[in-house]
Design goal:
InterPro entries: AAA+_ATPase, ABC_transporter-like_ATP-bd, ABC_transporter-like_CS, P-loop_NTPase
Number of helices: 10
Helix content: 25-40%
Strand order of the largest sheet: 6-7-8-3-9-10
Strand content: 25-35%
Distance between the termini: 42 Å
Number of strands: 14
Structural class: alpha/beta
CATH superfamily of the largest domain: P-loop containing nucleotide triphosphate hydrolases
Keywords: ATP-binding, Nucleotide-binding, Transport
Radius of gyration: 23 Å
GO molecular function: ATP binding; ATP hydrolysis activity
CATH architecture of the largest domain: 3-Layer(aba) Sandwich
Order of helices and strands: EEEHEEEHHHEHEHEEHEHEEHEH
Oligomer: single chain
CATH class of the largest domain: Alpha Beta
Family: Belongs to the ABC transporter superfamily.
């Protein structure tokens, strides 16, 4: 049995002369949370739609839960998905909407209330959908995606519209699902959230995969940043000049010099600044966040 929930090989989708996705290759192991990230128009939705059998690829192939995407009927009963925002009957309650979907999908009706409670809507299941906030609508969409008790859950921006408390609830829900063996493939623009929960990442830019692998490996391979604050702000340009003359890319952010460099260059920088008559009030080495790493990576691939 395959240990992969998703396996994509040279997957391509063209619309006329435009390539929405170009020669994509990536794998998502079973029982993990995989973040799917990229700017708007990078090919994320196109990829998800192909994985769900909604559109056919132009070239290449992919397998979902061991089955070819050309035969979605073989795997879709084991997949839950929420893409491009949930759609429900406004005049029906949340519980009634889920019961309709359960009837259409042949799922047990007794799953409805436990799922409402699981996504934090246990006490609002009787309220009409049209009275729900955007965050509540998102959570009802996740509950609907969980109706088939899926092996693979595909979510497109599941935290859209949620307040910090709601985002935390969804984060814990995804962790809980993964701990029970469900694979979660989640598209999100909140890279800080993905950094906390995603074990694997697939990054797209302009229809091409620019990174696929573990989150830990990406962050470990990122260049550290020296954050330098001189005693006098007037010395900032001189600090930048010292860094750049020694081959280190540097920028000024919030009154500090951000210098891309290995941590062991910090001592030499301190010494060079002292010799130039510059007193440093702070010098700290930090690891870039996932968001900073992503932007650095997309800048490099765009050069």
């Amino acid at each position: 049995m395959s240990q992969l929930a998703i396996s994509v090989s040279h997957l391509t989708k063209k619309y006329g002369d435009r390539r929405a996705l170009s020669d994509a290759n990536f794998e998502v192991p079973l029982g993990t949370i995989c973040g799917f990230v990229g700017p708007n128009g990078s090919g994320k939705t196109t990829t998800i739609r192909m994985l769900l059998g909604l559109i056919a690829p132009t070239d290449g192939t992919a397998r979902v839960l061991g089955e070819n995407i050309l035969h979605p009927e073989k795997y879709l009963p084991r997949v839950g998905a929420m893409i491009e925002g949930p759609a429900f009957y406004p005049a029906l309650s949340g519980a009634e909407n889920l019961r309709v979907l359960a009837s259409l999908g042949g799922f047990p009706q007794d799953r409805v209330q436990p799922l409402l409670e699981r996504v934090g809507l246990g006490d609002r299941g009787g309220s009409k959908y049209k009275t729900y906030s955007l965050g509540m609508k998102q959570r009802l969409g996740i509950a609907a995606a969980l109706l088939p008790n899926p092996e693979l859950l595909i979510l497109d921006e599941p935290t859209n519209g949620l307040d910090p408390s709601g985002i935390h609830e969804v984060r814990e829900l995804m962790r809980d699902l993964a701990s029970q063996g469900t694979t979660v493939f989640v598209s999100s623009h909140l890279l800080g959230e993905l950094e906390m929960i995603a074990e694997y990442l697939v990054m797209l830019r302009e229809g091409e995969v620019i990174y696929t692998g573990t989150t830990a490996h990406l962050l470990e391979s990122a260049q550290p940043i020296l954050v330098v604050k001189p005693e006098y702000e007037i010395d900032l340009p001189r600090v930048i000049a010292i860094a750049q003359s020694n081959g280190h890319k540097s920028t000024v952010i919030d009154g500090c010099a951000h210098i891309i460099s290995k941590e062991d260059w910090a001592a030499q920088l301190n010494r060079l600044a002292f010799e130039a008559g510059i007193t440093l009030s702070s010098l700290t080495a930090i690891r870039p966040s996932l968001e900073e790493t992503f932007f650095t990576l997309t800048e490099k691939t765009g050069e």
